[in-house]
Amino acid sequence: MRAVVVRSLGGPGKIEVIETPTPVPDPHEVLVRVVAAPLHPADFQSTSGMYVQFGAAAEADQYGVGIDVAGIVEAVGADVSTVAVGQPVIGLQERLDQRTACQAEYVVLEEWAVAPAPKDVPWSEAAGLPLNGVTAWQALDALAVPPTGWVLITGAAGAVGRLAVQLATLRGRRVLAQARESDENALRELGAVEFVSREESLGPAVRALVPGGVDGVLDAATMGVAAMDAVAHGGSYVSLLNSAPQQRRGITSINWAYRTDRAQLGLVSALSASGALSVAVAETIPLDDARSAHERNAAGGARRGLLVLTP
């Protein structure tokens, strides 16, 4: 099979697409034929060596690239009982030291790391649900904002932020979204009650709309102290990139990293199938063009939606 790997850490320029044997599932694993696999900012951290540097992955001579996937079950291990061959699934990879991963023609995942794919949802959109959906779900849980409370979501037009806006709204929280001015209408359509532009000074802009400050902030844009300054005394702050400021004014400050949760995978899939949750995809790209796709992804810019690889 073909697989996206790095054999020399140093960023997206080190990415290769290689031929390698198709993996064989262990007793508790499933083999998934990949239909779509999205790119994430975390891929840059992986290919640049940050995970090795911080001890999240062991040193090795090859690392697979890719965290989540949508595809079809090709084979199951001897002890698998809840997943069937031929079943469309979405899945999430938690280990960061595999020789091949989700950006490949095939990937092996633990049985507990897959859930049914959303019916009648394009593969590319379904593939964008696992990492971003579970991260948004768990981050909102960690915030513990009370019903009808205010949630500030920075970077609200990004992959995690966009899903967080929708999930927080579905939970009955009032969302104040922060993003580029050009994103305002789209975010209001997704449920945001109020909006501030990233060009504004965040704390004063938020307090002009919500006197006293919001109950919690999901800081997907990694704004740190500026985002915490928008939180009311005794509120909560969650960062997704180990950048949470020290606690102040009684605010609970949390660095959050996702954990694979099959039940939550199933819930975000069901919400997507019902039309209550949507993923923005900018472009699908052939697997063989993975290096250039990752270079574009690392460069960032004003692109709206995920880049998704298709074998």
From TrEMBL:
InterPro entries: ADH-like_N (IPR013154), ER (IPR020843), GroES-like_sf (IPR011032), Lipid_raft_assoc_Zn_ADH (IPR052585), NAD(P)-bd_dom_sf (IPR036291). It comes from the Bacteria. Gene3D superfamilies: Medium-chain alcohol dehydrogenases, catalytic domain, NAD(P)-binding Rossmann-like Domain. CDD domains: MDR_like_2. Residues 10-309 form the Enoyl reductase (ER) domain. This is Zinc-binding dehydrogenase. GO terms for molecular function: oxidoreductase activity.
